[in-house]
Specification:
The chain has three helices and 21 strands. By secondary structure, it is mostly beta strands.
């Protein structure tokens, strides 16, 4: 694959890990560990640490003078197919198409003036990986599908008055994708691999309203990012088409969040989020003349919603316990589900804890289990009907260190 020069080494190091989708579609909501224990409820309003750069940059006005956050997420998705292909071309069910992924995030925020804060974040907002045995019954439909992103997000926040803060950020985004499948029904199969990458940019905006001493409301918007990936098509390692191109639009999103302190012990939080997945309507890979080099895939995804509720309990001055639930709606209808992204609705059950190591340092841990509805698939490709169901689930374990100085 032709690679552009000048690629930042740090971008590659982080992008290598953004490889498993755990919010609906292929979005990654795992952008801190401090919010995982609440199933990420209320994140656009909680402004509890510098990771607010991702969720709502206006929240930086709630932070101390300087703060750094480093987090890591160990994520284990499971996706097991049970079904048939017609006509029967032989092969197994593909094994577990999931795997283990490690996703890091890092943030730094500081006060420039009494009312202006600056910050920067590095994170993977989207990621996907499904990887089947190359001899499975659906090998014509998919073998490996992988998408990696890294987003560098410089941000600014301005405190207008005691009640209202505004924030904005610039997203500088790198994307890399790999798609492979068998080119014929024979065993062992010849495998075609398409790889490509691109840079793009977008922005995010936020508003934080301190409605009372105990209640905050947050509203955040993250823009779509348009990419045109450039790469090549290889079959069994030999270049067949170069260059190859594919247009990809990563969707925009809006979140409305509530954070409320009930008393000295309890906090509650809630939010509703919308994601514009309807921009993902067709996957079409073309050559330099604009002609499709493989049959296009109709996606026709729908916009989707996520709702979440969470609570914190301060056991003492050092230890805070967290809990949360969420419902994450899939953008994929049964009619357009594919073996590359066999997505379905998911329900989150999460808990976590924060422990104060010192007056300036905190450690957060969180765990979530995602109950994923069985995903029905009836996909025809290359004259072969892949029919069956997926048994899926996700487990997430996260750790975060926050240091104020």
């Amino acid at each position: 694959m032709p690679l552009r020069t000048g690629r930042l080494a740090a971008c590659l190091a982080l992008a290598a890990y953004g490889s498993a989708a755990h919010a609906a579609g292929y979005a990654l909501i795992e952008q801190n560990a401090s919010g995982l224990g609440n199933a990420y409820a209320g994140q656009a309003a909680s402004a509890q640490d510098a990771s607010t750069i991702f969720f709502n940059p206006a929240g930086m006005t709630m932070l101390p003078d300087r703060q750094v956050v480093m987090a890591g997420h160990l994520i284990r998705p499971k996706a097991e197919f049970n079904g048939t292909v017609t006509p029967n071309i032989g092969g197994g069910n593909g094994g577990d198409a999931g795997g283990v992924a490690f996703v890091p995030n890092a943030y730094y925020a500081f006060r420039l003036t009494p009312d202006v804060h600056l910050g920067i974040g590095a994170f993977a907002p989207f990621g996907l990986k499904t990887d089947y045995d190359s001899t499975w019954v659906g090998r014509i439909h998919a073998v490996k599908s992988e998408l990696k992103t890294i987003n560098v997000n410089p941000s600014i926040a301005w405190k207008l008055n005691d009640a209202l803060s505004l924030g904005a950020g610039l997203s500088i985004q790198y994307i890399e994708a790999t798609l492979s499948n068998a080119t014929g029904a024979g065993l062992p199969p010849a495998v075609g691999v398409i790889k490509g990458d691109d840079y793009g940019w977008g922005f995010n905006l936020g508003l934080l309203w301190q409605a009372s001493d105990s209640t905050r409301l947050g509203l955040a918007y993250r823009s779509k990012v348009d990419h045109t990936l450039e790469g090549d098509l290889k079959v069994n390692g030999a270049v067949v088409v170069t260059p190859a191109y594919a247009d990809v639009t990563l969707p925009d999103s809006i979140s409305l969040s509530l954070f409320h302190r009930l008393n000295d012990r309890w906090d509650v939080m809630a939010d509703v989020s919308w994601m514009g997945w309807s921009s993902f309507d067709l996957l079409n890979i073309v050559n330099g003349a604009g002609a499709s080099i493989v049959p296009p895939t109709t996606e026709n995804w729908d916009d989707s919603y996520r709702v979440a509720l969470g609570a914190n309990y301060r056991l003492n001055d050092r230890l805070t316990l967290r809990g949360g639930i969420a419902y994450d709606e899939t953008p994929v209808s049964d009619q357009f589900r594919t073996a590359r992204i066999p997505d379905e609705d998911r329900t989150w059950l999460a808990f976590g804890a924060q422990y104060r190591l010192s007056p300036s340092s905190l450690i957060d841990v969180g765990y979530a289990h995602l109950f994923v509805s069985d995903a029905r698939i009836d996909e025809t490709r290359g004259g072969l009907l892949l029919s069956g169901e997926y048994d899926s689930a996700v487990d997430i374990l996260s750790v975060q260190l926050t240091h104020t100085f």
